[in-house]
Amino acid sequence: xxxxxxxxxxxxxxxxxxxxxxxxxxxxxxxxxxxxxxxxxxxxxxxxxxxxxxxxxxxxxxxxxxxxxxxxxxxxxxxxxxxxxxxxxxxxxxxxxxxxxxxxxxxxxxxxxxxxxxxxxxxxxxxxxxxxxxxxxxxxxxxxxxxxxxxxxxxxxxxxxxxxxxxxxxxxxxxxxxxxxxxxxxxxxxxxxxxxxxxxxxxxxxxxxxxxxxxxxxxxxxxxxxxxxxxxxxxxxxxxxxxxxxxxxxxxxxxxxxxxxxxxxxxxxxxxxxxxxxxxxxxxxxxxxxxxxxxxxxxxxxxxxxxxxxxxxxxxxxxxxxxxxxxxxxxxxxxxxxxxxxxxxxxxxxxxxxxxxxxxxxxxxxxxxxxxxxxxxxxxxxxxxxxxxxxxxxxxxxxxxxxxxxxxxxxxxxxxxxxxxxxxxxxxxx
Length: 430
Hints:
Elements lengths: L1 E7 L2 H12 L4 E9 L8 E8 L21 H22 L8 H4 L5 H34 L18 H9 L4 H14 L8 H15 L14 E6 L6 H15 L6 E5 L5 H14 L2 E4 L5 H8 L5 E5 L8 H12 L7 E8 L4 H11 L6 E5 L8 H10 L3 E5 L8 E3 L2 H10 L7
Parallel strand pairs: 4-7, 4-8, 5-6, 5-7, 8-9, 9-10
Antiparallel strand pairs: 1-3, 2-3, 10-11
């Protein structure tokens, strides 16, 4: 008996083919699904027919093998490849070539040796290429920097081209020129010669110096049995009231210990400010007191003596409005309690260094303890902040980086300020 197979998209199609090839004399032995039908692909069925050899029509020309000797197409392909390999080997032997030219493609380790060789060679080559590209990039950068406007700053010694980029970045940040020249002088004097080979190492060294020169006051919670009284002062529109709300939320909910917070409002000039802070106090369930005249200041602090933090909002004032600043001073001077009032000068980061300095000088009569900068998300230059903190030696305590309460408040760090100064404000790094 001969065993024949026929295939079709359906069993009936395969059977139809069988009838056309060998007629009705065969016997259906088995029906198999070889390939399932799927999206964009037809199914494939195979039927196995048994038939006496004498009954096979003369017209049936299909070359067949017994089913036991038939092989899957994949195996057949391997046989073909094996034959090609053998042919190549024979040709190699004839031509005295020892290595089989197809072995590396056809053998069991085909490609592995080549890939392992590439893995061993490519990283080194890539490293060398990357290194050369970096060197070229640095050279191009240096050439570009040779055309900068400040290429000949008024220093005792000439600034090498490798320092040009960092000088340009710092200069464009709004940093005071005297401070920048002083920093460059220090960098040139103390930087090891080997580190001057490229602008990247120069930049890292310059960053390190900047970090060390920014005065920062780290946030410390009140000691057991004590309290912190913090007064925010500054020009109008810098965000003092919003900053008070951020601090209140931070101390009340965001720190490891939940502190009791009370609010005092001196900003009775602006009804909107009082209502805004009243609303924050209601939302956070905080005690709040208002002060109209200086003698009421001590009474307000006493009323909130159960609190760990007392935050005081003051009326905004032009740096040149001496009367309003004097009014705040009278409140401070009228403090008869045992509590020390920590005065924080709040200023926007978006004004130039000269204006920051004037603001500081005019509010300095209040005894400024720390600096707080707002609106960091509204400016591209931060050298003015560095210069003011460096010039006044007053530490920075907080940065406000947006309007959201309480998320957009950042405890000050030199790393963050220097990052902003050299690379711009990045909210993800706040």
